[in-house]
Design a protein that fits this description.
Layout: H1 2-14, E1 38-40, H2 44-49, H3 64-70, E2 75-81, H4 91-103, E3 107-113
Parallel strand pairs: 1-2, 2-3
């Protein structure tokens, strides 16, 4: 009988509300949603050197980087060759183009290619 009374007393007191409830934290609300809209634009300098005219979705001549920015792209991937045989994707070209991209308010993803030949499956 004593065990039963003790068990009932234990259950009723152990299940009662605490006098100091644990504080509830406010929900986490992101202040800024991170959305990445990116494109590989490594060939834009080469296309520009060919004097080709690019057009936006309205059919108006427009620089390709400007078109990407106007279409909501916020990140541009650039390829950097280790030992390029031409100026294409060389350090100088990539540095200059990256500065232009950043001046338009976009971020740069740099993809460094350490091998120009040995990582090529055709070589």
């Amino acid at each position: 009988m004593h065990k039963l009374v003790f068990l009932i007393a234990l259950l009723t007191t152990a299940c009662s509300k605490s006098s100091n409830p644990s504080p509830t934290l406010p929900p986490v609300v992101p202040t800024k949603q991170l959305t990445i809209k990116a494109a590989d634009a490594s060939f834009i300098p080469q296309i520009r050197n060919k004097s080709l005219v690019a057009k936006n979705v309205a059919g108006q001549p427009e620089d390709m980087l400007t078109t990407l920015k106007n279409e909501g792209f916020n990140t541009i991937r650039l390829r950097l060759w280790k030992d390029p045989s031409t100026a294409l994707s060389s350090f100088t070209e990539v540095k200059t183009f990256a500065q232009e991209i950043k001046s338009k308010g976009m971020k740069v993803w740099l993809s460094v290619h350490y091998s120009d030949t040995w990582a090529d499956p055709g070589t």
